[in-house]
């Protein structure tokens, strides 16, 4: 944790975060005097989700999304916490940079979506083509900007050119200079009501979208793809696709398992807020779901590395995903019932 002055002379506290968008959103609220944790932001913002998107490719592999669309957590959390906020995208990079400078001069700190690969301060080993990485620009400096990146221990400097390139890199999921900030906030938000809205939203997203690639249905869709992949793709290509899935579970953003642990932490915080033993139990259930996703990752690694374990098969790996689908369906149906009993 480090503290520096923002453009308006107000101290800004930089913290290392678990996930970029939740950490940035939490920091934006904390800077304005509302101390809301990352897990609370994630839960209120309806962050947990699943989507299997074969029509979208990253590094030539289908995307498996374990969280909501980038930007959605901030927008939902800010709305439910009573903030007056601004979000903007741009077609012209120069206009995007000019607007960032203008807002910084008003004393605001600004959240940005960037492509991780093109941020000049990132080390080579941490660079890859991901356009949903969130950072905060705290103030303008000579030839650049002072940046709080929640994946890095200390604040860093970023050149004007480097930041512009990271904000406007072409390709799939181009961030188009997306920027966001709170103009004003409610210093006494109704956290209980915000939690209820977030939980209801998440249950609907996981259980009620009729398309087979989203929510619990989407998890089962992915399971079948994994089971069928050796016959349809051949062993080597199936391993490549399986490795891509493991990357989404373990690394991308916070990863599918990590998001489940974060949601468990949110449910635990909510249980204290409502004094609910049901939520305490559900927090433990969601932790177990995260463990099962991790079990899938371990088995998949053994398949890919050809460790010759008899249980390490594509059928069993897909079976673990099916188990996750069953556990998540039971969890969210139970959560729906618990939410109906909660009083804001």
Topology diagram in text:
Elements: E1 2-5, E2 11-14, H1 20-31, H2 38-44, E3 48-58, E4 61-67, H3 72-80, E5 84-88, H4 93-105, E6 110-114, E7 133-141, E8 144-148, E9 156-159, H5 160-167, E10 179-184, H6 191-207, H7 215-233, H8 235-250, H9 256-274, H10 277-304, H11 314-341
Antiparallel strand pairs: 1-2, 3-4, 5-10, 6-7, 6-10, 7-8, 8-9
Helix pairs in contact: 1-2, 2-3, 2-9, 4-5, 6-11, 7-8, 7-11, 8-10, 9-10, 10-11
Q: Which series of helices and strands comes N to C?
A: EEHHEEHEHEEEEHEHHHHHH
Average pLDDT over all residues: 91
Tally of extended strands? Answer: 10
Cross-sheet strand order for the largest sheet = 5-10-6-7-8-9
- Count of all domains: 2
Class from secondary-structure proportions: alpha+beta
- Radius of gyration, in angstroms, nearest whole number: 21 Å
- How many angstroms separate the termini? 34 Å
Low-confidence stretches: none
| Outline type | globular
Q: Tell me the β content.
A: 15-25%
